[in-house]
Amino acid sequence: MSLDRSVRWRGFDPDKLEHCHVTATARDTRIRSAIITPTFGLFYRLKLDEAGQVRTVRLERTDGAVLELFSDGAGNWSDDRADPLPALRGCIDIDLSVSPLTNSLPLWRCDWVINQPQRFATSWIDADAMTVRRDEQIYTRLDETRFRYQSADGSFERIITVDGDGLVLDYPGLFTREA
């Protein structure tokens, strides 16, 4: 994948805005983003390896809270003190609670067949609490621009529309792309 582009999303809460820049080359993908919510501002950086697997995550809120995670690309995670995070074993992607960008990570990395669901273990990051936990998710490609996203426990489902680069255009009830 080759990509060098900025995108902007507005939350359905009109006080939520994200401006993100993605730079992807054959060597790696780097993502830098700033998010404004009604209660905090957040800057995050992600680095993915050449296979599209998350290797580093850094979140920094305007109140000074920081969360930094590292992955070996094979589903083994550690924190900023190099302490292992066994609850995240097997997670390849992250899902950041306040950003639609992280929905693109499994979309970019996988081969897709229409109507064939794929299950993912993700490191789900709650940006309000600055905590991380394991989350099981299912994506199903419906056509060239739409994916069904489901929580594995069936408690949440949305049809996400993406552009030709696999970046979210519309995430009903949560985000819509502005630029």
Secondary-structure topology with pairs:
Layout: E1 3-11, E2 17-24, E3 29-36, E4 41-48, E5 54-61, E6 66-71, E7 77-79, E8 93-96, H1 104-109, E9 118-126, E10 131-141, E11 146-151, E12 157-162, E13 168-171, E14 175-177
Parallel strand pairs: 8-9
Antiparallel strand pairs: 1-2, 1-14, 2-3, 3-4, 4-5, 5-6, 6-7, 9-10, 10-11, 11-12, 12-13, 13-14
Description:
The protein is mainly beta and 179 residues long. It has one domain. It is 3% helix and 52% strand. Strand 9 (118-126) and strand 10 form a beta hairpin. The radius of gyration is 15 Å and the shape is globular. The chain starts with a strand and ends with a strand.
Notable traits:
14-stranded mixed sheet, 179 residues, 14 strands, mainly beta
Number of strands: 14
Calculate Rg over CA atoms: 15 Å
Rough outline:
globular
Number of helical stretches of at least 4 residues:
1
Proportion of beta-strand residues: over 45%
Q: Give the helix proportion (percent range).
A: under 10%
Task: Please list the strands of the largest sheet in the order they lie side by side.
Answer: 7-6-5-4-3-2-1-14-13-12-11-10-9-8
Domain tally: 1
